[in-house]
Amino acid sequence: MNTIAELVTWLRDEDAARLASLWQHADRVRRQSVGDQVHLRGLVEFSNHCGRACAYCGLRRDHHELVRYRMTEDEILQCAQQAVSFGYGTLVLQSGEDFGAGTDWVTALVRRIKRQTPLAVTLSLGERRPEELAAWRAAGADRYLLRFETSNRRLFERVHPPRPGEPPSDRIGLLRTLRQLGYEVGSGVMVGIPGQTYDDLAHDIRLFRELDLDMIGVGPYLPHPATPLADPVGRPSVPPADQVPSSELMTCKVIALARLTCPRANIPATTALATISPDRGRELGLQRGANIIMPNLTPARYRALYEIYPEKACLRETADQCHAGLASRIEQLGREIGGGRGDSPNFVHRRDASAANDA
Ligand code: 5AD
User: Fold this and answer.
1) 188 CA distance to ligand 1 centroid (A)?
2) Which of 91, 92, 143, 356 sees the fewest Cβ atoms within 10 Å?
3) Does pLDDT of 354 surpass 90?
4) How far does the centroid of ligand 1 lie from the alpha carbon of residue 334, in Å?
5) What confidence tens digit (pLDDT) does each residue in 62-85 have?
6) Cβ of 60 less than 6 Å from ligand 1
């Protein structure tokens, strides 16, 4: 499973019997490494302001028709209380790259959540300065999510232009900074970006391993009509036989292979997977390597405005409705809802190993 050639072979494999063995293997490794508990993370998409122009994302700054919002600290605290009342162990605060949510504002927000609730706090605020990341860690933030989106540098730069006057991003470098700051670190990719090859995707999976990620999020690329990447004219292209499809099957393969290469990572069955496959996306993810679900707690009046791609799953559900269906769906799979914070076993293992080294 370690070589690029082996990974590519799996990614191209269409044989039902061999794929069944891949799902079984991933499910077994998932059970042995992270157990049967499914941890729930309350997701709050607190701001859709964004200073970037990513070619795939509906929040891009040039999408002028989009009504922008930023929730108040009190509104976010209400979501945190709701997470507690639903029994979730973690609150995920996500936004566009919103420098209106400045260093001190986020610091105060994190402090308040940590003071008033027992929740673990995960931040997913894009590429921010190392000083800010350090301040938020000091304020009590536990985890940070920053997908590298693709390990193909050329493709990344095509779909992810730098902010005006700034050098190209270095997300791999930022992930290392996050690690040094003591965050539990998550990253991941989109599956089926136009111009993404099987070889690229195999390298992505190998990079999950090299970065020793604690959390790995993967979802299918979904075209948003108000973005350049949705326009067939001028978008990156490769020979059709090399182009990765943005399908349910391909996303499941990446989840399974991520589980096999990073056994102790926390891996969500993502909203994007549930969006292309509303009937069974979440279930398939959980049966093919995933162990996390991120129910959406964003208040209904903002939810439709956080449109990174169209027709997101749970778009019209309230947090209560979103929550109600979950428990029974998880039980039907023979799994249970996890208690506590649900830290990544990969993180816990590394921390304990380094403590033992220091002793
Ligand atoms: N389709 C699928 N996923 C997307 N994301 C952003 N835009 C899209 C899209 N059009 C994902 C990116 C980002 C995460 C928050 O959402 O991977 O890191």
Assistant:
1) 10
2) 356
3) no
4) 30
5) 999 999 999 999 999 999 999 999
6) no
